[in-house]
Amino acid sequence: MSSEIVPTSASQNLLNEKWDVVLSNGLIKTGLGFGGGVLASILFFKRRAFPVWLGIGFGLGRGYSEGDAIFRSNYGLRTVKA
Fold it and tell me: Is the pTM for the entire model greater than 0.85?
């Protein structure tokens, strides 16, 4: 049984980093939307389900749009320069 290490290229590493950022960002945005929906449901809508689903939808949409922007950028991952 031979286990060989396959070298990866720089472009493959960049793509893997982009996927990591997009998936974690989508998960965080969806979770925040869920939390906001639960909070709105409890405080304003007499514990109905639609604010939760609306919040999840907004979170998924925001995660998708930011992921699309990350994959369409020509300069790799967004960085913050202080």
Answer: no
